[in-house]
Every structure is written in structure tokens, then in C-alpha cells.
């Protein structure tokens, strides 16, 4: 039986702070904080903030952070944000199991708004592999720039976002540098109907599945499950034994049926330029 507490410990050990900055153009360190910038000058740039823990002892990131310490950390985030007028938005990633008193309230007071919580799902890779594509569906990696744009624009259509403008240049840059991050597509009648990335985390037993989206009229047919299976199978020879995902309520049950379990929740707090402060 999978030990939830052990998986959560593996998550905290391997998947937080510095490793979350993969794909950023630059990273700053302020105490326990990692603050990354996505995008390059002349393009839309966004900020991303994470940490292993907010306590005063960096050797023990699970040390509790009292309200005074939390307020100090949030002031550092705000100062970093305000010194970068090029950023259109900044996301701070929080976790439900962190021992940080009043963090949500302090972020809200600084103009960061909570988005929908997502379930952090972790489980063995082998539980995901082996699901064939439904009849009439072709699943393949999006290896050309044209294929990446088609997949990313479909995700924008589903999420109501402008994700493609950032992720396609980032994918091209990272793949050119030899990183094994790959965007996959499910195609029906020449149209991308589902897509998502897989990203092995260097130096760890993990790979993450990200950005999974399926057009509403194609849901309930097993396409997302087959897409996730193909993504997992593609990294089976890279030393990956665990898959993780920040999952919406749409994808969580699919991953649970494949043997992944919820170890905690993550809530992004997002500040957008021009929003309320």
C-alpha cells in the first residue's frame, strides 16, 4: 500500500524551491524564497515565487513560521515584484500542509488573489502506462513548432488563457538546450483535441504531467487517460519511477484510478498588474 506521508516527504524533498524554477529566464534568491521570471525582454514576462519552507532555519524547512516571519517574507515578495515593472503578473505557490501562520491573509493584503486549489497527486509510473488510444485518436509528441502552437492554442481555448505565448518559446528553448520536456497531443480528424506536457525532474525519481486539457466535446472518452499513459511511457527509460501532477477536479479522479494519491493541496495566489492591490 502506498504510504501517503512518505510520498509527501519525497515531494517536499525533491519537488520544491529550486527545481520549480525550470524554464525560467532568471532566478533570484531572497532568504527562503526562489523568485523566477518567465519570458524574455520584449515579450510578456511573468513572475513565479516558491520556497521549501518559510521558517528561519534553512536546514529544516519544515520549521514553523510565525505571523511576524510570514509578514517579513511577504514584504520581500512585494518589494521584488514592485522593482520589476515589466512583470504582468506574479504567482506565489502555497501548500496546504505548510506551517506558515497567516500566509493567505498576508498575501491577500498585498494584492494577491487566490485561484482554485489543486490536488498534488503522486504515484508510481507503472500505474499509468498501458492504456491504448481510443479508436480514431492519434497520440504523438508535438515536436515541431507548428505542432506545439496547435497544442498550446487548444489548451488556451480550454482554459481561457494566453498560455501559448509563453510556453511555446519556452519549450523550443528548453528542448534546444537538451531538456527532455515534451508536449504531447491527441488528434482526431486532423484537430488537436487534448494535450499536455511531461517534464522529468533532473536528479530525482519524478516526472511531472502538466497542462492537461481536453476539448469539452471530447471528454469522457478515455482520451486524457490515454494521453497521460503515453506521456508516462515516454519517460519510463529515464530513471523515472514516480509521477506527480497538480490536478484540477476534472483530472484528479482519472489519476486516482491509475494509482496516484492526493498528498496535499496547492493554491496559487496571483497578483496581476492593474488589478486591485
Automatic annotation (TrEMBL):
Q: Is Metal-binding there in the keyword field?
A: no
Keywords associated with the record: Transferase
**What GO molecular-function term can you cite, just one?**
acyltransferase activity, transferring groups other than amino-acyl groups
Domain N-acetyltransferase, residue spans? 138-277
Q: Per its UniProt record, what InterPro entries does this chain match?
A: Acyl_CoA_acyltransferase, GNAT_dom
Return the protein name. Answer: GNAT family N-acetyltransferase
